[in-house]
């Protein structure tokens, strides 16, 4: 279930159980519901798809400190090689190789297919003529929702930024 802040900003993904608890405690409101219901012994309620917190929760924006994972890099780069656009056999590549002083940072790591990664090897982009299609950058915080749920339900799309 997608969790929105009071400002309708996506902040998290949670289980159905957690969403129901937040709804029952009146800490959240139902925004989007499933066509299926949840049944308990004495009650039936709508199965949540998107909920919104009633009160605003301050979310620290420290994505520059977040751990860089393969899945996060792939999600940020649209699950495509940043050199040729291929969507298969993805790996990660340091644009400036670590052996040449490149850092393991969001601004230096891109998704690359294995053939492009092998072709680039341990060389600088200008030495081989391979520059990423988009400059690597720190991802928007909503990208971590794509990492938590790679297949985004249609009911979530209107609440997620296009760039994510």
From TrEMBL:
Query: HNH nuclease domain location, by residue?
Result: 68-118
Q: Which Pfam families match?
A: HNH
Do you know which Gene3D superfamilies this protein is assigned to? Answer: 1.10.30.50
Q: Which InterPro entries match?
A: HNH, HNH_nuc, NA-targeting_endonuclease
State the Gene Ontology terms under molecular function: endonuclease activity; nucleic acid binding; zinc ion binding
Membrane-crossing ranges are none
This protein is called what?
HNH nuclease domain-containing protein
